[in-house]
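Minimal example, chain plus tryptophan.
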Amino acid sequence: MKKVLSCIQPTGYMHFGNYFGAVENWVRLQENYNCVYGVVDYHAMTMPYNPKKLRENTWELIFNLLAVGVKAENLFIQSLVPEHTELGWIFNCFASFGQVSRMTQFKDKSSQSKEGDEGFISVGLYDYPVLQAADILIYKADYVPVGKDQEQHLELSRNIAQRFNNQVGKEYFVLPETLFTETPKILSTADPTRKMSKSAGEKHYISVFADEARIRKQIKSAVTDTGDTPAGTMSPGIENLFTFLKACNKTEAHESLMADYTSGGLKYVDLKTAVADALVELSATFKANKAELQANKKEVKNQIKASSYEIRKRAQQTVKEVKELCGLSNVRF
Ligand code: AMP
Ligand code: TRP
C-alpha cells in the first residue's frame, strides 16, 4: 500500500474551509492508503506564540481531527516524535541556502511578523521548510496531500532527498509527490472575495464545532450579491453557498436550487436555509463524536500517546539508517 503523510499546525479550532479543503480528504484517503497524519507543534513555534496555549491547542486539534473521522492509530503529535528535529538538523546540511531563501511562505509570514508589534522573525520560521522535509521523508511518504501553496516546500523536500541520495550513493529516500485533490475552496461568507480564514477575523470563518445558532446566523448574514457581478455570471457569494451544498453531498437540494437560479426564480433565503441545515447537520454529528471523545479524555489522550509511540518507531528506524549512511555515530541499544 502506498504511503500518505500530511500535517497540520495546531490552531485550536477547525473551520469549514479546513474541513472541506483538507481534512475531509485526509479521512477519505485512509480507506486506500497507509496514512500518517501529524499535528505539528514544533512548526507552531516559528511565529510568536503563547507557550501556555500551545499544548492546549494541540490537544484541541487532536480531538477535532478524531471527531471528524481521522483514525487514532494514524495520528501523532510531532513533539512526541523528536526524531523529526534530529533529521531536520541533518537536512539543514543538505538543503540549499539559496533555495530556502526563495520560499514564498517565509516571505509572506516574515512580512506579517514585521508588521506585528514585536517585529521579531525567528530563524525557525526561515528553517521551517527543512523541518517539513523531515516530516515527510522520515516516513518515506509517497504522497503528500496539500494545497497548491505547499508545492514549493514539496519541491525542496525532493531536492533534499535527491542531494542526500547522491551524497551517500544510494537511492535511500523516496521522492515524495504532491497529491492535489479536487477539494473545494471555501470563501468567507462575510466577504466572498477572500477565502475563509481564521487570520482575517471572527466573521470570516465558521467553526465546524460552533453552536447551531451561530452557524445559522453566519449563513443568514452571508453576502450574496454586492451588485458588481457582471450580468449572466453568478456572484462569488452565491457560488460559495452552492459549493457548501455540494460539499455536504446535498445533491438534490443543489440541483433544484440551481434550477431555480437558472430560471431566475431563486430565493436567497431558500438557498441559505438549505446550506444552514446541511452545515448544522454535519456539525451535529461531529459535535456528538467530540462529546463522546471528551467524556473519555484520559483514554483518548493515552491512545494518541500510544499511536505516537508506535509511529515514532518508524521515525527512529529512518534516523538510525540515515546516521549510518551519512557518517554519524549510532548508539547501539
Ligand atoms: P491553515 O489553517 O490555513 O494552515 O490551513 C490548513 C489546511 O486547510 C490547508 O491544507 C489549507 O489548504 C486548507 N484550507 C484553509 N482554508 C481553506 C479554505 N478557505 N478553503 C479550502 N481549504 C482551506
Ligand atoms: N507547512 C504546512 C502548512 O503550512 C504544514 C506542514 C508541516 C506540512 N509539515 C508538513 C504539510 C508535512 C504536509 C507535510 O500548511
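The CA atoms of residues 165 and 172 lie 6 Å apart. Residues 297-325 form the longest helix (29 residues).
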